[in-house]
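Hello support,

Our group uses your service weekly, and this is the first time we've seen a run hang past the timeout. The protein is histidine kinase. I'm not sure whether the cause is the sequence or the server load. Input pasted verbatim:
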Amino acid sequence: IQVNGAPIFKQDKRWQGVVLVFHDITGLKRLEQMRKDFVANVSHELRTPITSIKGFSETLLDGALEDRDMTEQFLGIMLKESTRLETLIHDLLELSKIEREGFRLSISELNMTDLVNDTVTLVEEQAKKKDIEIISDLETDVRYTGDATRLRQVFLNLISNAITYTPEKGSVEVRLEEQKDEVRVEVIDTGIGIPEEEIPRIFERFYRVDRARSRNSGGTGLGLAIVKHIMEAHGGSIQVKSEPGEGSVMTLIFHKESS
Ligand code: ADP
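Update from on-call engineer: The timeout came from a worker crash unrelated to the input. Re-ran successfully.
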C-alpha cells in the first residue's frame, strides 16, 4: 500500500489534522515483481550454458586439445549446450510473440486426426530410444477450426513431455475424441507424475518440478506456458490429473462453437 499525506490548516493557520490517501498498489507491485523475476530467470538460464561453453573452450585452449578423447568429450558438451541456448532463445521468442498484444492465430479448417498423427510420428524416435510404446487411439476425421502450426506445437510439447517424464519401457497413450460440442485430446503417461500442490505452478514460465531432470532432457521450462497461451487463444483449456509414481493425464478441451 502506498500512502500520501497532507496537513490541513484552519483559517487562522492553526493545524487541524491530516488527510491520508491509501493507494492499493498490490497488483502493480506484483506485476513489477513478476517482470523482475522473469528477467532474472532469463539471465540465469542464458548464463548457465554460456559459462559451460566458455569453460570448456578455455580448457581446450589451455592444452586439453592434445588429448583426443577429452577433446571429443568437451566438444560434445559444447555442442549440447549450444543447442540448449538455441532452443531457449527459440522458446523465448515464441512466448513473447504469443504474449504480445494483438497476437493473432492463423485460423483454418483442420483435420485434427491428421495433425495429432503427424505429431506422433515426430516423437517416435524419441520414444524408441527409451523403449516407450506410443499407443494412439484417434477418432478418424475429426474436424476443427484452428491454427495448425500452433496446435502442432501444443501436441508436440505435451507428447514430448510425456515421453521425457516417463521411465524406460513405459507407455504413452494419445487419444482424440469428438463430442457434441467439444473436441478432446488426451495424453496419458505412466511416468513420474506431478505432486498435487505443484500442478498449478507447472504452467508458470521456467517452473520445473525437478530442475535437473528437465535440464538433462533439454527442457526449457517454457513449454507448458506456451501451451497454456495457445489453448487460451483458441478459447480452449487444459486440465491436469496426476499421481506421483503412477503417471499423468493432460486433457486439452476445444469448444467447437467458439472455433
Ligand atoms: P520442461 O521444459 O521443463 O519440460 P514444461 O513447461 O514443458 O517445461 O513443463 C514444466 C514442468 O512440468 C516440467 O519441468 C516437469 O517438472 C513437469 N511436467 C510436465 N509434463 C509432465 C509429465 N507428463 N509428467 C511429469 N511431470 C511433467
